[in-house]
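FORM 7B: Structural annotation worksheet

SECTION A. Query
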Amino acid sequence: MEPVKNQVRKANRPVISRSVTLSPVLPSPALPSVRPPSARAVLAPPRHAQRERAFRLAQLTKQAVSHAWAVPEEELRAATRRRAPVATARQIAMYLCHVVFGLSFAEVGRQFFRDRTTVAYACECIEDRRDDAEFDLMLDRIELAVRAVSALGERPVPQSRRPRAASMQAFAATVQKGGVPHA
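SECTION B. Predicted structure
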C-alpha cells in the first residue's frame, strides 16, 4: 500500500489527456475559427454595386460638365493633362463627384484615371475658386442639374444618341441662366 502522502499528490495532479488539449492561446485544430460578419459587411451593398453606382454618377457628372463647359467628354477622361480649360472642367467634375455624391477621393480618382491626391488637390482648387461669385453661381447651377438628373435615376445618354454641338451650347446656356434642361 502507498503512503497517504503519495495518494494525495496523485489526486491533486491535473488530468491531461493526450487526445484533447485545451489552450487559451492556440485554437483547436479540430474546430475552425469562425468569426461572425461585421455589421458593415452585412449592411453594405456588394462592392460591385458600389463601383457600378460610382461609375454611373461619374458618367453623369462628366456629361453635365462637358456640356456646360463645351469640352468633349473624351477629353475629361484622357490620361494626360490637356489644356487649361479641359483641366478646369475635369477638376469641376471631380469636385462635384466628391461633394454632391459623397464618393471618396480614391473612387473619384478611379473613375477619372487619376490618383486620390490629384482629386484632393482638384477639390481644394475648386473650393478656393468658389470665392468668385460668378464661378460659384455657375457651379451651383451645374450641381443642381446633376442632382436633379441623378434623382430621376436616369442613366448616361448612349454614345449614339449624344446631342450635337448646337444642343450642347443650348444646354450650357440653359445651365448658366439657372434653369434645369428637360429631356
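SECTION C. Observations
The two ends are 104 Å apart (CA to CA). The CA atoms of residues 69 and 89 lie 7 Å apart.

SECTION D. Sign-off
Analyst initials: ____
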